Amino acid sequence: MPGNRRMLLGMKRTLFALSLLAACTKAAPVDAPAAPVEPTTVVAPTAAPQVAPVPAPFKLTDEMLAKYAVYSREMLPATTKAMGVATDVMAKAGTDKDKLEAAAKKDERVQEIGKLSEAALAKSGLTMADIPQLTTLTSEYYGRAMVAADAREALAKEEKLATKKKGKKAKAAPSVMQQVYGKQLDEFEAFKKEYATKHGEETVTILSKHEPEFLAINREMLQAVFKKSGKSK
């Protein structure tokens, strides 16, 4: 999956940015005492971080999420490759960022994933710049939504079973499992409210609309991972 490549590239960019910031930080104390004009020079670099919030006003649209669904489905074949790359690279390089990236570059599967990503982007109409924000915005929501969907299905089965055992007229207290599943559904509703506060009601409405499609994609992804894990045992 392209997420692993973005993670490694993100590490490199973060280190590069930190090194630049460190250089600026070290230079500032030397020049500041020498001339009172330097504080004005120091203000210039601080203006750059203020440009960073430009991506912040990211607004999700129905059309954009539909395109991301196309991209996500096209990237399904890369699931097992990505899992293999992540496992192998970590085994070879440990947690050293430079070694991780170097090891990933040598892995032919990374190039294959890159080609899949390019094709998926072309078919979806998105750009790579769109993917990180869409991934961040959807991963947590649909992860919680999948748990809630499973809980909803399990609760329905529990209630059906309880009805058969107790009879339609008998109303017994909810079983332990019914309470567990009910709590998970309540937690999801609370999560949706928090998400709406953070990202806006319209965003949650759009995410909810496309929930069935993304849950299906996520289930296929998990099946591929579990199938691969089963074979490797």
| Helicity range | over 70%
Mind telling me the C-alpha Rg?
Answer: 24 Å
Domain unit count: 2
Count every beta strand, where a strand is a DSSP E run of 2 or more residues: 0
Distance between the termini: 22 Å
What kind of oligomer do you see?
Answer: single chain
Mean pLDDT: 75
What does this structure look like?
There is one protein chain. The chain folds into two domains: 1-46 and 62-128, no CATH class; 130-233. Mean pLDDT is 75; it is low at 1-43. The chain contains ten helices and no strands. It is mainly α. Helix 1 runs antiparallel to helix 2 (38-47), helix 1 (2-34) packs antiparallel against helix 5 and helix 4 (79-93) packs across helix 5. It is 81% helix and 0% strand.
Layout of SSEs?
Layout: H1 2-34, H2 38-47, H3 62-74, H4 79-93, H5 97-106, H6 108-124, H7 131-166, H8 176-199, H9 201-209, H10 211-232
Helix pairs in contact: 1-2, 1-5, 3-6, 4-5, 7-8, 7-10, 8-9
Which features would summarize this protein structure in a list?
233 residues; mainly alpha; 2 domains
Q: What does this entry show, briefly?
A:
By secondary structure, the chain is mainly alpha-helical. The chain has helices at 2-34, 38-47, 62-74, 79-93, 97-106, 108-124, 131-166, 176-199, 201-209, 211-232.
